[in-house]
Request: fold
Amino acid sequence: MWEFDDKKYFFLFIAVILICLLVVWEVLWKRKAQKTFATPKALEILAPNKSTNKPIIKAGIYILALISIIIGLSNPKIGTRVVTVKRQGIDIVFTLDVSKSMLAQDMAPDRLAKMKQITSQLINHLGPDRIGIVGYAGSAFPMLPITTDHYAAKMYLQTMNTDMVSSQGTAIEEAIQVASNYFDNPRTSKVMILISDGEDHGADMNAAIEIAKSKNIKIITIGVGTEAGGPIPIRTSKGIEYKKDWDDEVVITKLDPNTLKHIAQATGGKYYYGSNTKETVDLIVNELNKIEKTDFESQQIAEFQSQFQWFLGFAFLLLFIDLFILERKTSWIKKLNLFNEKA
Reply:
């Protein structure tokens, strides 16, 4: 089976067709002009060594060489080459808080944007690690199954918002349970990166932690927000308002680092405060680099082998041969009369 790397060079075949037409026109024009100048017998006497066929042969060589160069530039490939690809890395599941409290702007530009920024930068620094994404608010939901496609992960990340879950709250314990089910390979090193403000956790936190520990999942937690807190902006038809409680008081959402620290310490992970994106990312990447990498995927990939060198080589061979072809008759070929030039 054939395939071509760059088919745009095929447009050059238009030039080949034009050259062929030009050659045909030139041959016909020369023959017509010669007939008006002298008879064939007189031309034989005036130019006895002039070959009538070699110019056509030389033009054919140039055209064949040009065709070979065009095909070579498009890099044709044929056949297959089977290679074994082994990936070494760790499995990482990003568990991301999308509750309304993440709209608070006590961390610029807001907690949600900061969370996306940190996650995106972390993905950029990862090697061939497999990653997945779980979102959660009042309940948890699978966002992206574990994959090696980091580009797809970043696309899914950008679509996450606080309207994805109707039930509000911060059900961290359910998020940990859902994310724990993502890890499908018992041999790989497993890391969960949980980013949240830590508020409004449920009563089954310890049970969720035990599930993670039973699967040897290390949880790294990142806190976004401030302990001073900030109001939760809500878009309405009247503009931006702030969430209020039953007493009509503006709700102030605050970072709860203690919950996040407890989760990290209980699973052998670490807690990071995410105020400085670069610093946080560098520290976590350094921590991830210390984790043992394991072979988590081995597959055979069939690849086409490039054949451009044959076409380019053939083109240069034709041009080299052309150097030795003169437009006059060759004496020993003339004796053979290959082109029936003698009546």
Remarks:
- The chain has eleven helices and 13 strands.
